[in-house]
Structure formats: C-alpha cells, structure tokens
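CORE FACILITY INTAKE
Project code: CF-77B
Contact: R.S. (postdoc)
Sample description: multi-component assembly, two entities in total
Requested service: structural model of the whole complex
Turnaround: standard
Below are the sequence entries exactly as provided by the requester. Do not edit them.
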Amino acid sequence: MTCNDVTPLLFSYLDGELKQDLQNEITQHINTCPSCQEEQKRCQKLLQMMKRCAPPDLLPHFEERTVKRWTDQQQNRENKTFIKKWFQPLLQLSTAMIVFVIVYQLFQMYPSTKEDATNIPPVLTEATTSKTEENPQVAQPAMEGGITDTSGAHISASLPQSSTTQPVGEVSEKLKKSPEKKRGDIQESRSKLLKSDELNETERAAGQAISQKIESAKPEPGVKAKGAAGATRDEMEAQSVQLCEAVVERNINGTIEVISLKNCDLPLIEEQLKKQLIQNRDKIFAELQETTKNRFEISFQYNIKTTTITITQVQMIP
Amino acid sequence: MSAPFSMKSPKMEVTSHLLQDEVALVRGCKRGEPKALEQLVTGYKAKVSRIAYLFLRDRSELDDLTQDIFLAIFKAIPNFREDCSLSTWIYRITINHCLNWRNRLRIRFRKKMIPFDQPRYDDQSLTPAEMIANSDPNPERALQKQEEITLIQNALAKLPTRYRISVVLRDIEGLSYEEIALIVKQPLGTVKSRINRGRNRLREIVEEVTRL
C-alpha cells in the first residue's frame, strides 16, 4: 500500500468506517511512513477545528421571542379567517345589490313609451306610415280628428305623436325605397286579418292592451302633446272615437255575417259588432222585412278607449 | 422552488420512533401549548442555529433565520407522522428551509449583481465584544482559535451544498452516517462517499489558504 492509496482514505480510517482488513493495512502503513503520520495529524486537527466551529450564541430570550412571534402570527391568521368568514359574504352581497340597483336604474332610464311603440302590431304602424306617405294632406287631419274617409290607418293616427315617432320614421324610410311593394303587403295582411273568422281571446286581449297603451301614452290635460300638431287632450279624446262602416248579411236562420269593414283595422271590432247586432236584433231589424237573405250597410262609432260600439245608422242594400 | 428533500413519506402504518420524553413534547407542540413549544426551542436551538449559521452571509441574520426555522417547525409539527426521530425531522426541516432561504437570497442578490458565494467570514465577522466573550483567558490563543474558525467557515462556504450538508452533519453535529442518510434521504453509501469527498476537498481548500 502506497501513500497515494492511504491519503484519500484517512478520514474514513479515522472514523473507523473501513473494513477491518483495510483498517489494519492502513495502520501498518502509517506506523512506518512519517509523511502519512503527518497527514493523519492534519486530518485530525481539521476535524477538531470543525468541532470547535460553533456559531455565536443567539440573542437572549430567544425561546420567549420565538413563541411570542408564533402566537402573534396565529392570532393574525385567526383574525384574517374571521374577516374572510364574515366580511367576504357581506361584501359579495353588497356588490350584488349595487349591480342590481345599477341595472334597475338603467331600465328606468329608458322611456316606457318606446317599448310600447315597438309592441304595437306591425300592421297598425305600417298602415299609419302608408297613409302618411301616400297622402300627407289627409293624414294630418286624421291625427287631429281621428276620422278618415278611406280605409287606412285611422287607429294609429289617433295615437299621440310621441309614441309612434320612432317606428313611423323607420318605416317611412323603407317605404320611400319601395312604396308600392310595401303598400301591397300591408293591404294583404290587413285583408287576412279581416277575413279570419276565428277570433280568440288572445287577440281580444291584444286589442285591449293596445287601447290601454294608447290611454297611458296620452299627455296630461291641457299640455300639448309633443309633435302632435298642437292637439290638446280634448282633441285626443275626440280622436279616440272612430267612425266606421260595415256591410252585414243576415241569414234566414238569424245568424249574422260581417261581409266587409271600412275604416277598421282591429279584428275584434267585427266580433263585437256581431254581438251588438245579435243582442239588438229586434230593435235594429224591426222595420225591415223578414226575407231570406238581407244585406245591410251599418254605420257605427267605435270608441278605442272604452272599446264600445255605437250603431248610428242601418240601411238595407237593395 | 421545490424542497431538495421530500417531507412526505409513503402511506403505511407508522410506529412512533420518538423517545419517551419526546412523545409528551411532540403532543404538547401539536396542541400548540406555549410551554411545549418553548421546551422544543430550548432543546434544539443550538443544533438549528449551527446549521443555519453555515448558510448565512451576515451573522446578524442568524437570530432571524433561526426563528424562521422554528416557525416552520411549529407550522409543520401537526403533520409530523413520527416515522423518524424528532431530531432527524428537525434537521430535515432546517436544511430544507435553509436551502430555500439561500436560493431566494441568491436570486435577490443576482439581480443586484452581487456575488453571493464569496467567502462571507472575514476578520470583522466578530465584534470585539463577541471576541472577548468567546475568548480564552489567553488572548493570543483566543485570536488563533478565532482565526481557525474563520478559516473553516470560509472553506465550508466554498464546498458544494451536497458535500457541505453531509460534512457539517457528520463533523460539526457529530451525527452517525445512518442518521445523515435519513435526513438527506440518500443511500448510506452515497452519504459516506459525500462525506469523504467533502472532507478531502475541505482539506485541500484549507491547505491552499494556509500555504498562502
């Protein structure tokens, strides 16, 4: 065994970590080799130096300070947990409330009339516009007086200007582009409505809702409606009554059929007129002859506000 | 930044490796009793501070770092599975904490372009008061002793971390090879080899410095 073999193993030798045979061989070599003896002394000194290599003492009351710091930390953590447990839900709730209030305010900011105007059936608004575009001279009196002599947009014309301004403008633009085509469509849809015999409750309700909207959209008494050519509330009241004409056929079995309507757009008028005629059959047809089939021309007033019909004249068509 | 030694052990039935005195101490610490915590600090502050001291640049930070290590121990002790001795577990936490702390510091110092791995201990590392406090009745011997300590500390600082930890645990802490293997979670052969290499490297460094 040479010095080069012994030197790297000296620390393990000093630790007694080597196998017994190797340990004995190194002991023999060290006893005979002065340089390895010197090396062994250096290693021992280094190990002793390392054992003395103690750090400086910690500052006094280290234990108490450490435990105090720990308890303070725990206390802070508990406080944070408490805040998190109670404050966070409150914060969430208040945020939700603020959001709700903001959304509610935004909804309030939009005028309800705009919404009403968009809910009016398209036939009515389109009819109005077609009338306005077709004959402005006629349309203006219609808005004031509420009576027209031709079939058209009488009901819509009686609406306050503010409620119909937006759709009218939009549809007018469309009509300018293709007035003939649009007018044809309107006539077609109107005739479809008039021809439909089945009037259900929904349609009736729709008609009443429109009347209510018209009522709610009316301006305060004495205040001139915006954009309604200076019409006051009294004028508006007058506008709510509509003069209509209808051709009615009475069958031999007593049933009544409405053949055509003039100046009327709402399908519920037909139903109402039928009822009125059946209820007052004796009164109305008393002077008239009982023939197999009679056809009459009936003039009546339709009140949009109260949705009532007042028959003014009955004429037999020869 | 992951801890170099895993604190988790595989799920199995664990029998307590604690000594009789340690059982009551550990239970008290798990319950968070201040007296038990204080007792733990008193019993292990020397060991913890010795390890911490080897990772420090500035001696004035020793108190803070040791305190931080104990706070980490207090935090982790409810999860202590008692599958090793208390001292092994504390050494493990100490070394992991010191390595993480050193890495954090290294990143910070790298940003400031200050070399961290330079030898930290110089002649001004001890204040005169500390030197007197640590000194022998013979001032010359005290000074020589202090020089030796500085020399070893500087040499240790130059060692790679894996060697340094093993050497320190063996030669400064006086732990057995088996204990070190448990702490660093390495095979016994690896630990022996690391210690031997570390010591030889340390000797080379010391001889180099003393020759100069």
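Facility notes:
- Chain B has nine helices and no strands.
- The radius of gyration of chain B is 19 Å.
Invoice: internal transfer
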